[in-house]
Design goal:
The complex is a heterodimer of chains A (about 110) and B (about 120). Chain A is mostly beta strands and about 110 residues long. Helices cover about 0% and strands about 55% of the residues of chain A. Chain B is mainly β. In chain B, the strands form three sheets. In chain B, strands 2, 5, 6, 10, 11 and 12 form a six-stranded mixed beta sheet that branches. A four-stranded antiparallel beta sheet of chain B has the order 3-9-8-7, with no helix packed on it. Chain B has a two-stranded antiparallel ribbon with strand order 1-4. Classes of the chains: A mainly beta (about 110), B mainly beta (about 120).
Chain lengths: ~110, ~120
């Protein structure tokens, strides 16, 4: 158990809809990262938050947004969903600068 | 810019034989290097990391990795593979000089260990 909790585990929705994915980091970790894993694009970094502030941005679409709350949990919001957004979305957290990122088990998003 | 290449999509070995999963990296400065393993329907599990020091790094489940700066490689090794080592393996890199903690991952290598 990595200590990172992601909910929900599975999400099935339709094109054009909006969903929110939730992540609770390991106790004490200030950094939260979001990744998208798909068969065609592999594991892609989306965005990082550190202690409530955006720290780095990767290949994140404008339809996607995220935030980290004062209790350090994070949410990833995906809107105007398209079929191509179907993927596994992972959250990871880390504490120390040189430490590893610890991953949750992901949310599998299926767009019908 | 930082990137990782895993040149083999698949590695197949017999149980008890040595296992090697290859990784080369590219960073502007000095690297932090990581190996992760992913089992079906699970998140990535941390195996080991290289920051500084000894070029041979030991990690979880009997895995080790060798850092080679001149060849910009960080190959994962296990002296005697088990069937339970069958999984998807990812190498990742981060530039020590970057001001964020973003990791760049390779495409992954599927390891199959046959009994």
């Amino acid at each position: 158990d990595s200590g990172v909790t992601q909910t929900p585990k599975h999400l099935i929705t339709a094109t054009g809809q909006r969903v929110t994915l939730r992540c609770s980091p390991r106790s004490g970790d200030l950094s939260v990262y979001w990744y998208q894993q798909s068969l065609d694009q592999g594991l892609q970094f989306l965005i990082q938050y550190y202690n409530g502030e955006e720290r780095a941005k990767g290949n994140i679409l404008e339809r996607f947004s995220a935030q980290q709350f004062p209790d350090l949990h994070s949410e990833l919001n995906l809107s105007s969903l398209e079929l191509g957004d179907s993927a596994l979305y992972f959250c990871a957290s880390s504490g120390q600068e040189a430490g590893p990122q610890h991953f949750g088990d992901g949310t599998r998003l299926s767009i019908l | 810019a930082q990137s990782v290449a895993q040149p083999e999509d698949q590695v197949n070995v017999a149980e008890g034989n040595p296992l090697t999963v290859k990784c080369t990296y590219s960073v502007s400065g000095n690297p932090y290097l990581f190996w992760y393993v992913q089992y079906p329907n699970r998140g990535l599990q941390f195996l080991l990391k290289y920051i500084t020091g000894d070029n041979l790094v030991k990690g979880s489940y009997g895995f080790e990795a060798e850092f080679n700066k001149s060849q910009t490689s960080f190959h994962l090794k296990k002296p005697s593979a088990l069937v339970s080592d069958s999984a998807l393996y990812f190498c990742a890199v981060r530039d020590i000089g970057s001001n964020d903690y973003k990791l760049s991952f390779g495409a992954g290598t599927t390891v199959t260990v046959r009994a």
